[in-house]
Design a protein that fits this description.
Structural class: alpha/beta
CATH superfamily of the largest domain: Aldolase class I
CATH architecture of the largest domain: Alpha-Beta Barrel
CATH class of the largest domain: Alpha Beta
Helix content: 40-55%
Number of helices: 11
Distance between the termini: 37 Å
Length: 288
Amino acid sequence: MKSSVAVLPPFLVLDQLLQSWLLEDIGRGDRTTQSLLLPNSTRSKARWIGKAPGIIAGLPIAARVFQLLNDQVNFVNITAEGEKCEPGQVVAELNGSLDTLLMGERVALNLAMRLSGIATLTNLYVEKISDLPAQLVDTRKTTPGLRILEKYATALGGAINHRMGLDDAVMIKDNHIVAAGGIGEAISRVRCHIPYPLTIEIETESLAQVREALKYKADIIMLDNMPVEMMNEAVLLIREADSRVKIEASGNVTLETIRAVAETGVDYISTSAPITQSRWLDLSMRMD
């Protein structure tokens, strides 16, 4: 797998999100658990068990969910974050008050299963091109409120994070080009307004647009929904004109097509599939 660094945001950033999700689930109180148990009255042990093969992601976040409810809960990773697990494998062990374990179970598991599913599918895409220079890149097609965690999961699966938001970089897409009246005008206007060191990426759909993007010194040229044959021509055109320009391919990338795209010589391949098409990785919590 190519090197990719998955950096979990600090809990200063995450705690507000986690607290809101706990409040959504708990509401005015856990009627079942609070009717059966007094707070902190019984300590218990539990295990998280993998029920399907995949890449584990989100364990530090799950641990934080329980600790926000009770800082005496001990959450120990048995399977390392980012490692593969098999059905029946112990993923984590928990020790703490039984009421806390039951109250935090669903939010913690939901997050870990969602993120593990994303990391698992991402890794399948990455493995398809692991021997080629091209790198897999995620997109902004994320679940509102979950972007920061979903992009963490793609990085854990081996992808490179694209911009986190609209303020990270300039990406001039088809509608921007129409609004500006053309590629040259769009790049020229943007360059007058953006701060250093933001880069300018331009979306192109034809060789004529590629030539115009080169003329106006775009930093990154995206080849959007191009047939592989045209993509090969575009890559050669860009490499001969300006070796500093990075090339990104995008549009209808699947597990079946990604290798052919990578073999054209592009630097990056962007796809939303690992996030939008992934299935949750099934995990369960068992009390000892």
